[in-house]
Amino acid sequence: MATVLLETTKGDIKIELFNDAPLTAGNFRKLVEQGFYDGTTFHRVIPGFMVQGGDPDGDGTGGPGYTIKDEFRPGNKNDRGTISMANAGPNTGGSQFFLNVVNNNFLDKKHPTFGKIVAGMDVVDAIANTPRNRNDKPLTAVIIRKASITEK
């Protein structure tokens, strides 16, 4: 099982990737290994909902230059503490992801989860409560300084 460490300007977040989401977790892992997320921001934060990152452009429009198919695991649940693939519709996931700060089960049929936060949920909560503008962008950038992967 692989674990991803996101070292952010608000603290560290450790995410265990699901083995039963090989396409989605594998894509995230590949991007982490390539350093894709290093220096990117959490560009959208909504208290009581989620924090979103993974956009190299920092405005919600960017991605890796390709998309992947939706991969819904049996019992897919956007529960508090899960990481899920952001998308603009079916089969449009790429690099953007979000961390659920509450149970968002109304998203279960649209956004595949591919891991769970095993440490640093307090950091995620702090990011979600960062002061933001009317477009939900943090007033002070919350940066992923480095993303790295380890095997268990």
β-strand percent reads 25-35%
Oligomer: single chain
Which class of secondary structure composition applies to the elements?
Answer: alpha+beta
Count helical runs.
Answer: 2
Chart the SSEs and their pairings:
Blueprint: E1 2-8, E2 11-17, H1 22-33, E3 41-46, E4 50-55, E5 82-85, E6 97-100, E7 113-119, H2 121-128, E8 144-151
Antiparallel strand pairs: 1-2, 1-8, 2-7, 3-4, 4-6, 5-6, 5-7
3D architecture notes:
The chain is of the alpha+beta class. It is 13% helix and 32% strand. It has a single domain (2-151), classed as Cyclophilin. It has two helices and eight strands. A hairpin with a 2-residue loop joins strand 1 (2-8) and strand 2 (11-17). The mean pLDDT is 97.
In summary, what is this structure?
The protein is built from 2 helices and 8 strands, in the order ββαβββββαβ.
Relevant terms:
single chain, 152 residues, Cyclophilin, 2 helices
